[in-house]
Write a structure and sequence with these properties.
5 helices; four-stranded antiparallel beta sheet; globular; alpha+beta
Length: 157
């Protein structure tokens, strides 16, 4: 999730997070990761994402396309970007774009990592509420993209 080579996309991505929250989010994420450790912080943020999913449930859907549409409506209401899903056999690939993770004040990149963990919990909660098993979870795929958060929803390791 680095800056895009497209200056127009970079401009809009930077504007996604309201200026009054940029420094605060960057500082909170950095402190969380430094003070409790990376994995405990990611666990806390995943749980926060699960709580967000509970608080903004999606309508029941029968297909990935239906889920994608319902998720995009909820994400639009939060101004959190958009998602596309694809079936990869043993996993559902979740590609979240245009989310509020780019903050110029966050040189260490703690906020993008925190936002990705929030998304892991959010999508896990939403998909489990649709009937996916409790052994399935969304996890970040770091090798997948520099400009989007890509998650794989599959059996938790």
């Amino acid at each position: 999730m680095t800056q895009s080579s497209n200056p127009v996309i970079s401009y809009y991505a930077e504007r996604q997070v309201s200026p009054q929250w940029r420094g605060t989010l960057a500082a909170m994420a950095a402190e969380l990761f430094e003070n409790v450790g990376v994995e405990p912080a990611r666990g806390f943020l995943r749980q926060t994402g699960l709580r967000l999913a509970e608080g903004s449930p999606l309508a029941a859907t029968e297909t990935l396309e239906g889920f994608q549409s319902a998720a995009n409506q909820a994400l639009a209401a939060m101004d959190w970007g958009l998602v596309s899903l694809s079936d990869a056999g043993e996993a559902v690939v979740i590609r979240h774009e245009a989310g509020p993770w780019r903050i110029a004040e966050d040189a260490a990149g703690a906020w993008p990592a925190a936002f990705a963990a929030l998304l892991e919990g959010l999508y896990t909660g939403w998909l489990r509420a649709q009937g996916a098993g409790e052994s399935l979870a969304a996890r970040l795929d770091l090798s997948a993209s520099d400009e989007a958060v890509v998650l794989r929803f599959a059996r938790a390791a």
